[in-house]
Protein 1
Amino acid sequence: MVNTEVLVVGGGPAGVLSALTAAKNGHSVILVDAKSYTEIGNKTCGDAINLGPLKLLDKELGIQLPHGEEVAESVESLVFQTERVTFPLSGPGFVLNRHPYGQRLLKIAVESGVEVRADTKAIRAIVDETGVKGAIVQEKGSKESYEIHAFITIDCSGRNYQIRKTIPTELFPNLEKKMEKRDVAASYREIIRLKEDHPYDNKILLIYDSIIPEPGYFWIFSKGKKRLNIGIGWYLDMSVEKGMKELFREVLHKYYPQGTYEVEDKGGYTIPTRYPLMNAVAPGFIAAGDSAFHVNPFSAEGHGPALSAGYYAGKISSEALKVKDASEQQLWGYNTAVMKDFGLSHTKLQLFTEALRKVKTPGLEYLFKRNILTQDQFMALHSGKGLGKSEIFKIILKGFPRYDLLLNLYKIAKGIQKFNRLFDRYPSTPQEFPDWENEFLLIMNNIRNW
Ligand SMILES: Cc1cc2nc3c(=O)[nH]c(=O)nc-3n(C[C@H](O)[C@H](O)[C@H](O)COP(=O)(O)OP(=O)(O)OC[C@H]3O[C@@H](n4cnc5c(N)ncnc54)[C@H](O)[C@@H]3O)c2cc1C
């Protein structure tokens, strides 16, 4: 048996940030990852990241923005595109080379005092009626497992959510255990090298093509003048006749026919893509990153939120260690920080995802082509600001006779207002959470099942 103050399971962005933040505050931290040390940080990904979380790390922890070989492209705009309409939004960030960036973060963690146990898989949580006490882990190639006991255990195991799913619900009912098919996207991507320069400098494109089941999309992210990260993804509950790779190739060849590119790298994985866990703590436990549904449910960007959530998890853990209290109440500040940072905005973006499931790409094009929904109004909805009554009235007039589309727009606008009001009252104690969560679920399920 091994003892530590903080045990972090998973060395992706959420895990490394949790670990290094707690270690920088002077606490003993063990980070376990199933991967080998040199593979930590390497992940099949679209590689795009928004500037916001990177600035947070720079400001709070002095972690320099990605630079040198870590950056494949600087991004200025995010473009939503269908076959007929194009919507550019300002969106500064990067397309990264994730592996060197992840390895730099790991190095900072080690220099801050984190003990990394690579090739070590967490099997399940150690739990008693007072809380989570650590995890049972197993080294690669070994038949024996052993226990790591910790004051706080942070689950950053991504899609596996290995610790959260092994915590008995009956002991800590505020912590949700499910990960349903409709909340997980399957995704496949290739990095291709072109024979000629492409026209996508400094851009990332999300393309809604009618052969991809909505709200899934095809993406084109620039990684230098002749390189692109191109991928496809949709939700696991969608029934699709063709295989993902076949459909990928079909869409890719609309842009780059066979023979115009070489595949440098390929791979796929699943992404939990839903509004975040409304509560991600239990006594002695925090979940961060994909394991807590921290991926943007509209764009599927999860790298940035995982970094921010990891920082909050490490910070709240060290505050708890200082007062030797790992109760749900003491850790509750983590929920508040996540909700304030991206929790509310991701929840509102879930409305877009639901609407797109209903109106489909042709519906979206109808709204844009006829100028029923303007770019400013789209941005107001997308950023969660919502629309005023007079604007809604004008849209209704212009949208006649497509009341099905208008109803969906109306539900987004209404949902945004409701969530803004509800999150103003986000509970400050775990005791208030069940009633608040019931209100939340009533609104969310009503929207999801309309
Ligand atoms: C194809 C694809 C494209 C994507 N594109 C983008 C994009 O362009 N932009 C963006 O922001 N996000 C993108 N994402 C999402 C992004 O990759 C994730 O949201 C982000 O990596 C989440 O970080 P994390 O630390 O929570 O989990 P992960 O990065 O998944 O890290 C989890 C870590 O836990 C380890 N682990 C898992 N189980 C165990 C266990 N039992 N014991 C020990 N270790 C374990 C894993 O080895 C891994 O190192 C994409 C995802 C996919 C699959």
Protein 2
Amino acid sequence: MNGAREGAGSEADRVVLVTGGAGGIGAAVCRRLADHRTALAVADREVEAAREVALEVRMAGGRAEPFGCDLSRPKDVEVLLDSVVGRFGALHGLCTVAGSIRRGDVTELTPADWRATFQDNLDSVFLTCRAAIPHLTRAGGGAIVTIASGWGLRAGRRAAAYCAAKAGVVMLTQAMALDHAPAGIRANCVAPGDVRTPMLEREARQLGRPVGEFYAEAADRPLGRIGEPSEIADAVSYLLGDEASFVTGAVLTVDGGGTL
Ligand SMILES: NC(=O)c1ccc[n+]([C@@H]2O[C@H](COP(=O)([O-])OP(=O)(O)OC[C@H]3O[C@@H](n4cnc5c(N)ncnc54)[C@H](O)[C@@H]3O)[C@@H](O)[C@H]2O)c1
């Protein structure tokens, strides 16, 4: 807490790192967390887009800095955490949103697709948490929220690598919840269903499907529609905050009932 005050100015009470902060859900998380008491580190390999998100947060009265980083590279991630803590003085929260999808069954996916999918979705979470946890511990505890997917809980067609990687995110989160509870660190997972973001559009293109038709099919779930990024951000905000002080190891599905 004191570190945050020194590094980010007198009013910042917490420092939160959002990976994939330039993407659809990540940007919504940044917007949702933005206030003058929260210093946001917006990390993404799309550094220009991260800069735009940070600017938007600042224009709305929040505090944010962009950080360019390929989260699949151990050295990059170490430099990222050093830079964030160097800039803001401490770290209290982490939301790992970065991820990517390559649609295909195991006969369609190449070994390179498999590796890239695991690197972006699972290695990135391991590497970021590995570098962040010592800082959270030093701050006296903190909160981690990972973003998995409904497909980390129940298989979907032609997304074999993605399903496997996201299932790994769920279990990694729960393992960290157990290991780091004594340090006052809570670790929880949000499992979204189909959400209106650039990723969903890319999936339609990868499958050679018209976007409108693809979205209509994705809406076939109990609540009858796809989700909005802000609805995922609300769940992240809850799990990161003090209202979830007794919640750890939870997997919160935010999917309009899609996994029922
Ligand atoms: N959109 C959906 O329907 C949906 C559903 C379930 C889960 N999710 C998950 O939500 C998260 C956010 O997805 P989104 O829909 O906002 O996608 P998106 O493509 O809009 O955003 C993902 C962001 O992650 C960044 N990223 C990916 N790999 C990275 C890496 N190695 N290093 C640095 N940055 C990297 C990308 O540059 C991008 O800005 C992902 O983990 C995704 O798997 C999305």
